[in-house]
Amino acid sequence: MISNILRRSNSIFLRTTLSSNKITNVTVLKNSLVLNNNNNNNNNNNNNNIKQSYNKINFFTTTVPNQNEKIELKQQEQKQQEQKREQEQEQEQEQQKTNRINDEIELKIKILDNSLKYVNLYGWTSEAVSKACIEMGYPPITQGILGDDSAYELALYFVTKCNTDLMIKLSDAENSEQQLLSGLSKKEKVKLALKLRLSMIKPFIGRWSEAMQLLANPKNIVNSSPSMLTLVDNIWYLVGDKSSDFDWYAKRGLLVALYTSAELFMLSDTSVDHSNTWRFVDDRVDDLIKTIKFKNDIEETVGITLSTLLKKIQK
Q1: Per residue in 142-181, pLDDT tens?
Q2: Is 270 strand, coil or helix?
Q3: Of 172, 230, 164, 233, whose CA–CA distance to 200 is shortest?
Q4: What pLDDT, in 10s, does the model give residues 75-101?
Q5: Which residues contact 41 (CB under 8 A, 6 or more apart)?
Q6: How far apart are CA 287 and CA 293, in angstroms?
Q7: What kind and span of H or E run contains 231?
Q8: Which of 36, 73, 239, 243 could form a disulfide with 189 if both were Cys (CB 3.0 to 4.6 A apart)?
């Protein structure tokens, strides 16, 4: 009896205990799931916070340069500005240099041009240049900008100026000289051009021998020659000469000799309005044209003769 009671009691206790353990296990399991869920939520929140923080940092670093980049950009800008300033200074210095050269050239021309009115009184000398400087308000030493030989520079300036004036006269379609030139033969054009050029030295004919001596001086001949060559080249160009062979040199050499001899003749010419000089020019140009024609005829004859001989030899 007692044994049965004990047996039942133990059974009831055991069931109670098992039931209690089961409830406890369920509760523990439930709590564990809740805890895990909370942990997952916390982890997700943490991950989201990390991502947001990273995005903020990435945005900051990609949109705002760091301090070193700022310094580097500033240095580059300063370097570019310095280079720009240097270029501007170089351009300004170059422009100032050009202006100084132009001013000096302009002053030289003014002094030389003003000196011409003193030539008949003082000759082609440095004294004439000094007088011009004083009149312009400069000290006589100012003629030093012309070089060591201001007298020669004065003579060379006048010759160059005359050559330029002749070219302008004969090239200007509105000039009466150009109209006359257009209706003349080549021979007459050469005569007219030479007479116009010679007439430019008439105001200084009494002192022109001094200028010729300066221009022909051995130490100056190298600088003087181009002015004479320019004169004869311009004349042949204006009359329409288009020779490109040996005739080009022959014609210019002959015309140099003709013009020089005409100048020398003009120095001793006492006729009214230098009429004898103009007759001398006409005669010498006629001879020049005959010489050129004779030379061409000889060359043509020689060429025909050689051609005939070659043909006979080949036969």
Answers
A1: 888 888 899 999 999 999 999 999 998 887 655 555 566 7
A2: coil
A3: 164
A4: 788 888 888 888 888 888 888 888 888
A5: none
A6: 10
A7: helix 221-238
A8: 239
